[in-house]
Amino acid sequence: MTPRLDEQTVNLAQGFPAICVFVNDVVNQNVLQSLAENGTNLIALRCAGYDNVDLETAKELGITLVRVPAYSPYAVAEYAIALMLTLNRQIHRASYRVREGNFSLNGLLGFDLHSRTIGIIGTGKIGRITGEILRGFGCQILAYDPYPNKEFGEKYGKYVAFEELLAQSDIISLHCPLTNDNYHLIDENAISQMKPGVMLINTSRGGLIDTKAIIKGLKSKRIGHLALDVYEREDNIFFEDLSGEIIQDDIFQRLLTFPNVIITGHQAFFTSNALENIAETTLSNITNIEQNHTCNNQVIIQ
Ligand code: NAI
Asked: Which UniProt keywords apply (predicted)?
């Protein structure tokens, strides 16, 4: 197993001026302090989000952060749509049935996406592409973003208040970063405002959703379908083969028991195009910092 960066493994970085990390590496205060003591002054994130990094400590220690702001927004947007279609038409269940010689259609009833209202939370690069694709399906798009995009609002979707989006949407898809302000954005209160039977898709960050509240929502049937590519405690689970292990996270295991839930292990980004972009951008980020001490993809810490 390749070790992840955390307090136990940080010494492996000793003597390396730059290190390269991904979404579930631990870059907290202790790790950053050890990195600084060991001579690291550049962290190259192979991802867009940096919610796993203690930014204040990085700033205090003079550690520069660079990231890959966009490696393929299409990869994630297309994956979000794939999850919607799979859940709605229950392709995951149908495929297993057919393999077992069961051709019954019982329980596989879906709905037309055409004319349905889709709520997009966060209309940055990925959210906008998701909305544009769904317009092609004939969906009505509602959007919520503290910084609305004028062109998207004119051509593809209508910006509304967060509460209105919750109340009107048949499907809600999360496309905003995880910040200190929106941790558990989807909590019990938000769920109570959603349409009964709503479909919820999260390809952004696990911490946006209060998983315990979601389980309650699934049990009461307020949430009719759920797809998660990210999970708030995924760092202990995802990206490893645990098929022979006993998974200790009971909340995660409970989620897996619902027939109307799909969970995948943070793979929305995982296309050949995205991997190529990640590698190219990461190498050029590091080279720019090394040669010019500046880089367009530097994380600016306020
Ligand atoms: P982006 O930075 O282009 O757009 C994010 C948008 O969210 C911005 O318009 C921002 O104003 C908005 N926003 C911020 N806080 C918000 C809030 N509380 N409510 C609503 N909107 C809010 O980011 P991009 O490239 O579109 O990525 C979105 C997220 O997707 C990333 O932050 C990351 O967490 C996730 N992601 C997941 C991947 C996966 O493999 N599952 C891969 C890549 C990104």
From this structure: NAD, Oxidoreductase
Helical residues (DSSP H) of 115-161, grouped into ranges: 125-136, 150-155
Ligand 1: nearest atom to the Cα of 126: 26
Q: Please give the helix or strand (H or E) that residue 96 lies within, else none.
A: helix 91-99
pTM strictly above 0.85: yes
Tell me, using a 6 A CB cutoff, whether residue 230 lines ligand 1: yes
Ligand 1 atom nearest residue 203's Cα: 41
CATH of domain 10-70+272-292: 3.40.50.720
Ligand 1 proximity of 182 Cβ (cutoff 6 Å): yes
**Is 73-263 the same fold as 10-70+272-292?**
yes
Going by C-alpha positions, the residue among 98, 41, 45, 14 that lies closest to residue 297 is: 45
> What is the identity of the amino acid at 69?
P
Catalytic site residue from 46, 116, 222, 234: 234
What are the φ and ψ backbone dihedral angles of 158, each rounded to 5 degrees? Answer: -105, 125
Average pLDDT of the chain, as a whole number? 96
Angle at 144 (CA atoms; ends 139, 149), nearest 5 degrees: 90
Q: How far apart are CA 260 and CA 84, in angstroms?
A: 11
Identify the segments of the chain with pLDDT beneath 50. none
Q: Considering only CA atoms, which of 64, 61, 21, 16 is closest in space to residue 289?
A: 64
Return the CATH number of the domain spanning residue range 73-263. Answer: 3.40.50.720
Q: Looking up tokens 């709605």, which residue turns up?
A: 88
